[in-house]
Design goal:
Helix 3 packs across helix 4 (about 75-95). The termini are far apart. The protein has six helices and six strands. Strands 3-4-5-2-1-6 form a six-stranded mixed β-sheet. The longest helix has 19 residues, at about 75-95. The chain is an alpha+beta fold.
């Protein structure tokens, strides 16, 4: 009986379950995660996301390697950015998210690609939650200049 109670307690623990399940999921190298983060940032920029930032949190947390933050002008824009990121990764790279949260309200959409977690905010939510401040000691990944970014799939010359 004591063993069952112990297991029941562990099952309900918020700190043990996400940590072990996320850690077990990591399957790529940090360089793969960095490439994926750059692709995600580029997809967001293609649909006019602003304030795009990539934060390297790989040595600080065990659930992801990179955070990609971006901002949309309205709930519709946030929704469109999140959909475009998902569509681009699925069509162009065969990658689908593990989880997507917040699409209905589209104030803050979180897309979990395992080694990269994407946060698409409306400006007010981004300022309120201040993830940049939370991760101020983490290094940033430079984004390529707009002229260097690869063209979107629908661009034709």
């Amino acid at each position: 009986m004591e063993r069952q109670q112990e297991q029941g307690t562990d099952r309900g623990s918020a700190s043990s379950e996400p940590r072990s399940s996320k850690t077990a999921r990591k399957t790529t190298t940090p360089e793969d995660g960095k490439r994926l983060a750059l692709v995600i940032a580029s997809a967001g920029l293609d649909i006019k996301a602003s304030s795009v930032e990539i934060i390297d949190v790989g040595d600080k947390v065990d659930y992801t390697e990179y955070l990609v933050l971006m901002t949309g002008r309205s709930d519709r824009h946030v929704h469109a950015i999140a959909k475009a990121v998902q569509q681009n990764l699925k069509v162009e790279h065969g990658v689908v998210p593990l989880s997507v949260e917040g699409m209905t309200a589209a104030t803050w959409v979180l897309i979990d690609f395992n080694d990269v977690v994407v946060h698409v905010f409306q400006q007010s939510a981004r300022l309120f939650y201040d993830l940049e401040g939370l991760w101020m000691d983490a290094s940033r990944v430079s984004l390529p200049a707009p002229s260097v970014r690869p063209p979107a799939a629908d661009d034709t010359d």
